[in-house]
Amino acid sequence: MDSLTKKIREIASNILKEGKVEMVIGFTQGTIPMTSKPYMARTPEQTENFIWDRHCTLNLANYITGRKEKIGIIAKGCDSRNIVNHIVENKISRDQLYIIGVPCTGMADKHNPDELRDNCATCTHRNPVIFDIMAAEPVEEQKLDDPFADVKAIEAMDKDAKWGHFQDLLSNCVRCYACRNACPLCYCPTCFVDESAPQWVGKGQNKTDIQTFHFLRAFHCAGRCTDCGACEAACPMDIHVRAFTRKLNKDALDLFGWEAGLDMTKRPPLDTFNPDDPNDFIK
Amino acid sequence: MKVIKIDKTEWTGGIDKSRAKYLLFGPVKDKDVQNNERYIFKQLSADQFPDMEASDTVLSPKGTVFPQTEKMLQVSLDPSVPDHHIMKRVDTDYSPRAVIGIRPFDAKALTLVNLNFDTKDYRDPYWCDAYQATTFVGLAVNKPSQFDFSTSMGSSPFGEEGLDVLLVDNGSEFLAKVITDKGQSFLDAAGFNKSADESSAQKIEELKAAAEKAVAAKVGTDNLTKRTILELHEAPFWNDIAFAYINCGTCTFVCPTCWCFDIQDETKGKSSTRFRNWDSCMFPLFTLHGSGHNPRGEKVQRVRQRFMHKLKYFLDKYDKGTMCVGCGRCVQSCPVNIDIREVCNIMNNYEPKK
Fold first, then answer.
1. Residue A62: phi, psi to the nearest 5?
2. Which of A102, A140, A230, B267 could be bridged to B272 by S-S, CB 3.0 to 4.6 A?
3. Are A236 and B335 in contact (CB < 8 Å)?
4. Residues 68..107 of A with a Cβ closer than 8 Å to B: which?
């Protein structure tokens, strides 16, 4: 057995035995090769079902939103940053959590499993930023010459090419909302696309309505997205929805020097006022 | 049964010929997304041919007869127009069409949807008109995918239910089993008329046996009718099954038998349209009442509903087996690996405590 898996099971079992938590959230083996499934253990015996491998692609912070129990949670770098988001946004309290940090060397691409998935290849926060115990020694962080080369390529397009690019990106969306629902940021009790009184967005396979959903969702994630890739891991149609959030991540970094989910003491930039704000209108 | 032999060199010529009498639908390669080769069922343009080598499509072909968004009625709100404010059926083209390369399990799935839309008391005109206008030219699955469990769910890689013609890929030729008169008419329109020799029936049986043997996943359904609805409904396993669930509609949208829809009106200027969209019992909005109450407000209730409908309520109501044909699409696409094969086995093996 993988030593990381063994260690995760051991820690999870211990904290349940010691009564530090009522449940531990992690991943278990999926029913088809190269998949995992979010899993909750409530007894030390059940922790034997936990696994850790290159296919733990979802973000487990999605499963703690609004929960009342004392929870153990297994967190790779991005999960830990979304846990920080959740704490800052009052979706869970730090005291409720026992975080089992897992240093991550990147998850596999779902169609080319020998390769790193796209967001992991440009990840610079592989080690958990917040934890109660680490399941292994931290790994070396990647040094990238240009983490946003993909965004710059789109920025360099002229207006029509850019619009064409975005239209093409979303042309096969079926509105299953898997991207939204896999996203730990998307916890609104009623999403704007589900509002019915008044109804903001049409429900049909109308390209304007589909684009409205994706653009607005991306803006709701501005300054909050950790580029964890859960949206793309979930999308059955293989839509590169991160094309939108990555642009906003780049803007947050360029304008505010901000990367989401690194600091429990700071509010996200669009959530607060700063005298140094780069925009004139706010002064 | 009559078997026609179609040499593959004659295939595209025949397909072209059939276009004079049929609108054609079939699997074609979708745009290349994220380095992944994928196929979709769509109406073919005049220069497109169904890709008979295509892997299973992510979405089932149900959209060919039950589009995700479908116009139903239209009305003018302009008082100067005669018949203003009177809803009228949209003038949709229901001329003969053929869906080519549909998998046997998908054709069977559409017969199950038909049970719901074409009943003694009610006839859904949009579905019925499209379904009845369609000739289903199936392609037998010689090599079932790892997700296929059709043989456990009353279908088969060579199943004939719901098909008008079953094509069997036999190397340099297709052997076309003529199942209905509709199927015969299509083959006539395509000019496919060479009778296969007597050994072809034997050949089809051999390929069928090999394909059925290659379906690895086995699911038990024998006990589903024996358990009562309440026994299964109250069973203790639903919370565990539902834990990973994220409220998305992927399974229902890729499913060939999910038929639920939502009706919407949209008005622009003086013209208004009523249309329907696929809906999903996995969405909390699906059952939200006008009062704000939601009888399926908890996720465990929604997960239970989907599986109970497919594997229990439908079974009891129609006595036509499960409302799952074992295509495996939801197994493949579910973002959180909720696997209907596993759930079905749990339900089937459940022994209520006395």
1. -60, -25
2. B267
3. yes
4. none
Distance of CA B30 to the CA centre of its chain: 19
Taking an 8 Å cut-off on Cβ atoms, the answer to whether A240 and B250 are in contact is no
pLDDT grade, residue A1 (50/70/90)? low
What is the distance between the alpha carbons of residues B195 and B184, in angstroms, rounded to a whole number? 12
> How close A194 comes to chain B (CA, Å)?
7
Record the tokens describing residue B139, joined without a space: 């392609």
Cα(B181)–Cα(B183) distance, rounded to whole angstroms? Answer: 5
CA distances from B16 to A88, A232, B22, B90 (A): 62, 39, 10, 30
pLDDT in tens, A247-279: 999 999 999 999 999 999 999 988 888 787 877
**Count of Cβ atoms closer than 10 Å to residue A145 Cβ:** 5
Closest CA to B333 of A25, A35, A166, A11: A35
A118 to chain B, closest Cα gap in Å:
10
Cβ B57 vs Cβ B333: under 8 Å: no
Q: Do B280 and A39 touch (CB under 8 A)?
A: no
Q: How many residues does chain A have?
A: 283
Q: Shortest Cα distance from A282 to chain B (angstroms)?
A: 37
Contact (CB, 8 A) for A79 and A58? no
Distance from the B30 Cα atom to the nearest Cα atom in chain A, whole angstroms: 9
Angle between helices B125-132 and B104-117 in degrees, nearest 10: 140
- With a cut of 70, say whether residue B22 has pLDDT above it: yes
Residue A171 sits at the chain B interface (C-beta within 8 Å)? yes
Q: Is the distance from CB of A273 to CB of A282 less than 8 angstroms?
A: yes
Considering only CB atoms, which chain A residues are within 8 Å of B72? none
Total CB pairs under 8 A between chain A and B: 109
Q: Taking the complete model, does pTM exceed 0.90, yes or no? A: yes
Best B31, B248, B260 member to test A by mutation, with max A CBs in 10 Å, is B248
Q: Kindly state whether A233 is in contact with chain B, defined as any CB-CB distance less than 8 angstroms.
A: yes
Cβ contacts of B204-209, under 8 Å, gap ≥ 24: B204/B3, B204/B140, B204/B158, B204/B168, B204/B175, B204/B177, B207/B140, B207/B142, B207/B158, B207/B168, B207/B170, B208/B140, B208/B156, B208/B157, B208/B158
CA of A145 vs chain B CAs: smallest distance (Å)? 23
Over residues A141-155, mean pLDDT: 96
Alpha-carbon dihedral angle through residues B226, B232, B235, B241, given to the nearest 10 degrees? 120
pLDDT per residue as tens digits for the range B174-204:
999 999 999 999 999 999 999 999 899 999 9
Q: How many CB atoms lie within 10 A of CB B241?
A: 19
Interface test with A, best of B279, B337, B338, B346 (most A CBs within 10 A): B337
Contact of A14 with A47, CB cutoff 8 Å: no
Residue B99, pLDDT score? 98
Evaluate whether A275 touches A260 at the Cβ level (below 8 Å).
no
Is B268 in a helix, a strand, or coil? Answer: strand
Confidence of residue A283 (pLDDT cuts 50, 70, 90): low
Q: Is the pLDDT of residue A47 over 90?
A: yes
Could A182 and B332 be called an inter-chain contact, meaning their C-beta atoms sit closer than 8 Å? Answer: no
DSSP 3-state of B320: coil
3-state secondary structure of A87: helix
B336 with A233: Cβ contact below 8 A:
no
3-state secondary structure of A249: helix
